[in-house]
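User: I'll paste a sequence; please echo it back and then give the predicted structure.

Assistant: Echoing your sequence first, then the prediction.
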Amino acid sequence: MTGIPPFAEDDWKIIRSGNLDYHVSCRTTRCDLPNVDPQTGIKDRVEPYKSLKRSRGFVDKGAGAHPVLGMQMVPLLKDATGSEEIRVGEEMKVVKTGEHFYVKLFQD
């Protein structure tokens, strides 16, 4: 999609591509794994997690201070055959918007 504002996907609930709909189920909370340099394996103590937390923390009440970036989506298949497909270059259309609330899966 082009021409949309930053983080517009925060409010998407259902999107469509061709003949396939997706339920945009929740925001993705980020951990500090991106702090590890993939070339060296050395972990930075604070970045980029600190910057993500500053710009994307407290975006979702359920996630609290944990930064959120990206959305998790589930295809909504019309039948058991799964004959729907997504193609490169296909336009995406926002069908429904609404609020999200992150639910933590595991307790600390």
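The longest strand covers residues 20-29. The mean pLDDT is 88.
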